[in-house]
């Protein structure tokens, strides 16, 4: 499986996406920095009422970005291959079809999980560091708050990685790239729309349930692939 994953990464030059990931994080930092220079009628506005609110907004931005990012990778690795019939060549190799598709889905899942977790913790850490040095947030950040947010970030990263597979269902229906990407935008927007420090991700059952649905969709897409005729 690891060899297949490595071959897929090399074939599609997926390492180049780390440049795009870096650009995303730079954009996040720039956006957060700009928020702290907002002034209305000459009076400086504090963008975040608490560390919880800052973490919630950062998490929403990161999850939205990488859910959509994952759909682009799904299109490249799976949808385009089925639509262009290039997957037929892969299926002639003496390797089980399930392994081939599983390798592709694993890449999407791990890519999303790693980037959501890393970016969330990185940006949260920068906000915490800025607060320690410049006191940019009202109130103090307790060690208990940090520990709780570490666990939340980990759980949200797993859930987002699962959710990132849901657009596969819409894309495979008609082998449609637009359907894959548009569905990911809708899912990400609905789940991560923020009202102060509340999103649907705040209700832990919602992202976990959708994450499991995404994993089931991944399983469903390979369940009968050995017997299925390619159309």
Q: Describe it for me?
A:
There is one protein chain. This protein has a two-stranded antiparallel sheet with strand order 1-2. It has one domain (2-223). Helix 1 (2-11) crosses helix 5 and helix 6 packs parallel to helix 9. The chain is built from nine helices and two strands. It has helices at residues 2-11, 17-35, 51-83, 87-90, 97-134, 143-163, 167-174, 177-192, 205-223, and strands spanning 39-40, 43-44. It is mainly alpha-helical. Helices cover 73% and strands 2% of the residues.
Sequence-ordered SSE layout with sheet pairings:
Layout: H1 2-11, H2 17-35, E1 39-40, E2 43-44, H3 51-83, H4 87-90, H5 97-134, H6 143-163, H7 167-174, H8 177-192, H9 205-223
Antiparallel strand pairs: 1-2
Helix pairs in contact: 1-5, 3-5, 3-6, 3-7, 3-8, 5-6, 5-9, 6-9, 7-8
């Amino acid at each position: 499986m690891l060899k297949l994953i490595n071959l897929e990464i090399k074939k599609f030059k997926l390492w180049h996406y780390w440049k795009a990931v870096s650009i995303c994080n730079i954009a996040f930092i720039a956006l957060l920095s700009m928020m702290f220079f907002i002034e209305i009628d000459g009076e400086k506005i504090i963008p975040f009422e608490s560390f919880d609110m800052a973490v919630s907004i950062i998490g929403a931005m990161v999850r939205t970005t990488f859910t959509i990012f994952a759909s682009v990778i799904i299109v490249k690795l799976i949808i385009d291959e089925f639509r262009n019939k290039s997957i037929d060549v892969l299926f002639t190799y003496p390797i089980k079809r399930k392994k081939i598709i599983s390798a592709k889905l694993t890449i999407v899942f791990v890519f999303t999980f790693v980037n959501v977790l890393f970016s969330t913790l990185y940006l949260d850490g920068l906000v915490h560091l800025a607060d320690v040095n410049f006191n940019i947030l009202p109130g103090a950040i307790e060690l208990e708050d940090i520990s709780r947010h570490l666990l939340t970030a980990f759980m949200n990263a797993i859930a987002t990685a699962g959710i990132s597979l849901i657009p596969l269902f819409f894309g495979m229906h008609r082998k449609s790239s637009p359907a894959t990407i548009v569905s990911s935008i809708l899912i990400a927007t609905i789940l991560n729309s923020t009202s102060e420090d509340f999103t649907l991700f705040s209700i832990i059952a919602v992202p976990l349930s959708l994450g499991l649905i995404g994993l089931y969709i991944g399983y469903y897409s390979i369940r009968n692939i050995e017997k299925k005729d390619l159309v």
